[in-house]
Amino acid sequence: MSSEMKPIPLTLIVAATPSHAIGRSSALPWRLPKEMAYFARVTKGEQPEQDGLNAVIMGRKSWEGIPERWRPLQGRINVVVSRQDTFDLGDAPHSHLASSLPSAVSLLSSIPSTPISPTPPKLNRTFLIGGAQLYSHGLTIPHPSYTADRILLTRLKTDFSDCDAFLPPVPSATKGEWKQASHKELCEWVGWEVPEGDRTEKDRTGGGDVVYEFQMWTRESRA
């Protein structure tokens, strides 16, 4: 198989509670600025060899859940997956529309030029950033164009009520499919020193303290 035909590795990045909850009414049930800063730093990338841009793939509701002043996510190629082929992304630079996860990956394999970006950037890493349906699709539906082989999981130790979006019950080491990487491996992969162990941060939505841990899981095999 030539390098052009190799499946693109996808990294899921997600924060989830002990019950795998990840959202409520198409938004995060919590607001943790330090955790969000981690998300931004990781998805932008700081690898020494990096000379292009990372990509983030998200569903339409996830795109709409980002405050307009922060769209698109800067310093990254944004791909929005929507069945609405007329969905308007405006004139946001480095932003593209795709009809499905496979079509998003196909687009990234040959990034089109635009009047705003006449020279397409080189693609580095590709992150799947939500929502729940897209996470589930990436994790459970194999496709020759991509392989979801890594999860950067912020494991919240606190549950939140009234959530309506959930991650599939992974990662799990019970079947030997996934393995939790060491903290050193996480730091080596992202390219900088990630805080280790439990972190405590005040929920800015008005809640109390939230305890969480930055984890990385890698896929060992297809179950």
UniProtKB/TrEMBL annotation:
Pathway(s): Cofactor biosynthesis; tetrahydrofolate biosynthesis; 5,6,7,8-tetrahydrofolate from 7,8-dihydrofolate: step 1/1
Biological process (GO), any one: dihydrofolate metabolic process
A GO CC term attached to the entry: mitochondrion
Superkingdom of origin organism: Eukaryota
InterPro entries: DHFR (IPR012259), DHFR-like_dom_sf (IPR024072), DHFR_CS (IPR017925), DHFR_dom (IPR001796)
Coiled coil regions, renumbered to chain: none
GO MF, one annotated term: NADP binding
Entry EC number(s): 1.5.1.3
Keywords, in A-Z order: NADP, One-carbon metabolism, Oxidoreductase
Enzyme class: oxidoreductase
Limits of the DHFR domain: 9-219
Family named by the database record: Belongs to the dihydrofolate reductase family.
Name of this protein: Dihydrofolate reductase
The organism of origin for this protein: Leucosporidium creatinivorum
